[in-house]
Amino acid sequence: MTRIVILASGSGSNAENIIKYFKNSNLISVVQILCNKKDAKVFERAKRLEINSLYFDRAMLNDSDVILNLLKNTADYVILAGFLWKIPSKIIKAFPNKIINIHPALLPKYGGKGMYGMHVHNAVVANKETETGITIHYVNENYDEGAIIFQERFNVLPSDSANDVAEKIHELEYKYFPKVIEEVILGH
């Protein structure tokens, strides 16, 4: 059984979607959610879905080996689902090509520090982009610069607001993220 640990920072809708996707799998299992915000809604989702969850702070991630050792003991793959902190190089080295992130734009456009969520969608609309989409990629030492695994795009209509774009992005995330994770893990 391949074990997934999800890192999240917010509501956890993508985390829940991934957990439900693999719930009855004999090959892949979500074993834990780690979150860096004490009051994040992802904890409520984890409890309801009966997935072990744990809060951690920046020091546990960067200054000690607490999270590194926890991941080494529990994870085969690490999935970032709305996780906003940079992953330290010691964790990247411990999980080469086994840390996967999803980004709500077509990288390399609208990537990097501070480009997440509505910041991305507002920029896409403000710049009158004609298309946007999602990028699923491996994580390296730089924000949103790891090798691209998968992209899916859609046309941005002149009438689309940032909220419209966000809704379309979420649909793509829910549709493709679990499937692409499965394909990467199973080597398809």
What are the main properties of this structure?
globular, alpha/beta, 38% helix, 188 residues
Describe the protein's architecture and organization.
This protein has helices at residues 13-22, 42-48, 58-62, 66-74, 89-94, 117-126, 162-186; strands spanning 2-8, 28-35, 52-55, 77-80, 99-103, 131-138, 148-155. The protein has 188 residues and is of the alpha/beta class. Helix 1 runs parallel beside helix 7 and helix 6 crosses helix 7 (162-186). The protein starts with a strand and ends with a helix. The mean pLDDT is 97.
Summarize the structure.
By secondary structure, the protein is of the alpha/beta class.
Pick out the low-confidence regions: none
* CA-based shape: globular
Number of helices: 7
Strand content: 15-25%
Mean pLDDT reading: 97
CA-CA gap between termini: 17 Å
What order do the strands of the largest sheet run in, or round the barrel if closed? Answer: 3-2-1-4-5-6-7
Counted beta strands:
7
How large is the radius of gyration?
16 Å
Q: Percent helix among the residues?
A: 25-40%
By secondary-structure content and strand pairing, the structural class works out as alpha/beta
Element-level helix/strand string: EHEHEHHEHEHEEH
Report on the biggest sheet: 7 strands, mixed
